[in-house]
Write a structure and sequence with these properties.
The complex is a heterodimer of chains A (140) and B (180). With 140 residues, chain A is of the alpha+beta class. Chain A has four helices and seven strands; from the N terminus they run ααβαβββββαβ. Helix content of chain A is 49%, strand content 30%. The chains are: A alpha+beta (140), B alpha+beta (180).
Chain lengths: 140, 180
């Protein structure tokens, strides 16, 4: 019986340590990988037409199955949600870079987790490039 | 504890960890254009021969209000209207079915109780004479225990056809005011 308790306790202990480690890692992640994440989530486009860019972002999100939640031209943000058994939320923002370029940044959240995998962002920017007829350039 | 029991506990623990990891993993192609996206766009879009985007947005907002939606957000400069409608979707037949099934299984079986439909409408000028209107609907359904039982995009062609029929009618009325 005491062996049972020992085994169960050690398993629980392992789980608790595991979860503590994850939480601590998350706290650090927000700081450490910010530059990496910004680079994954951002692209530069050769356009200075803010309104056209925002409108194209909106139609691209609709093409990707999102329903628009909010758009603000002054802030330059669009937020949308995709429901497909899961909840995928995205906020896309635009800001000028010099006179001829705009930086587009997108943040996606899958259920309760920030999406940090580069692939979904690459897919999003590929769809946006196609709709804009412009190439998405990496942020240097 | 036998070795078998320890093995079972270990497997269950590992499995739950794996499942927890899967839960946070975004599905592949969630942000990629799907083969259905063109079909969905056709279903959700109509083109109107006008250059007056504000009039189109005003008429659309009125149709949404007529259909019981409340306007939650709008940004005319981007051609966006966001609206939603909450309603009770409790159906007597489903409640009776759930209770009967619950008695047979010896455990409560939930039924659908509340639905929230979100509709966002976007206008986009195509050229000087035509504007595209695209509306997308999605809904979340909660059961009587307040748990989400369904969340998905609505792709029933009838809903889109009905909306655009109402919008066309409203535009006709807007264009030809007949006085009170």
């Amino acid at each position: 019986m005491s062996r049972n308790v020992a085994v169960t306790s050690s398993l629980l202990l392992a789980l608790i340590i595991c979860s503590c480690a994850t939480k601590q890692k998350n706290i650090l992640q927000a700081e450490e990988s910010q530059v990496r994440l910004r680079s994954i989530q951002s692209r530069v486009f050769d356009t200075n037409d803010r309104n056209r860019l925002l409108r194209t972002i909106i139609v691209t999100l609709q093409d990707l199955g999102f329903v628009i939640d909010d758009a603000d031209e002054i802030l330059g943000t669009v937020s949308a949600t995709k429901l497909k058994g899961y909840v995928l939320r995205i906020t896309v923002s635009v800001r000028p870079r010099g006179d001829k370029q705009m930086i587009v940044r997108s943040n996606a959240q899958y259920n309760l987790q920030t999406v940090e995998d580069p692939e979904p962002y690459q897919q999003f920017f590929a769809a946006l490039s196609k709709a804009l007829f412009l190439e998405a350039q990496q942020l240097e | 504890m036998s070795r078998q029991a320890v093995a079972i506990i270990t497997i269950i623990t590992l499995l739950s960890l794996v499942l927890a990891a899967c839960h946070y993993k975004i599905p592949k192609n969630a942000l990629a254009l799907s083969p259905e996206s063109l079909k969905d766009r056709q279903l959700q879009t109509r083109i109107f021969e006008t250059d007056d985007e504000k009039m189109l947005l005003t008429a659309s907002a009125a149709v949404l209000q007529d259909s019981g939606y409340t306007i939650e957000e709008s940004e005319v400069s981007c051609g966006v209207i966001v609206s939603a409608r909450d309603r009770d979707v409790t159906e007597t037949s489903q409640v009776v079915g759930s209770i009967v099934l619950g008695v047979c299984l010896g455990a409560p079986v939930p039924w659908d109780a509340k639905q929230r439909v979100e509709a966002s409408l976007v206008t986009k000028p195509i050229d000087d004479k035509r504007i595209a209107v695209r509306i997308t609907f999605q809904h979340v359904i909660w059961n009587n225990h307040n748990q989400v039982s369904k969340r998905e995009q609505i792709n029933d062609p009838e809903i889109y056809e009905e909306f655009f029929a109402k919008l066309s009618k409203s535009l006709f009325l807007t264009a030809h005011e007949i006085g009170v």
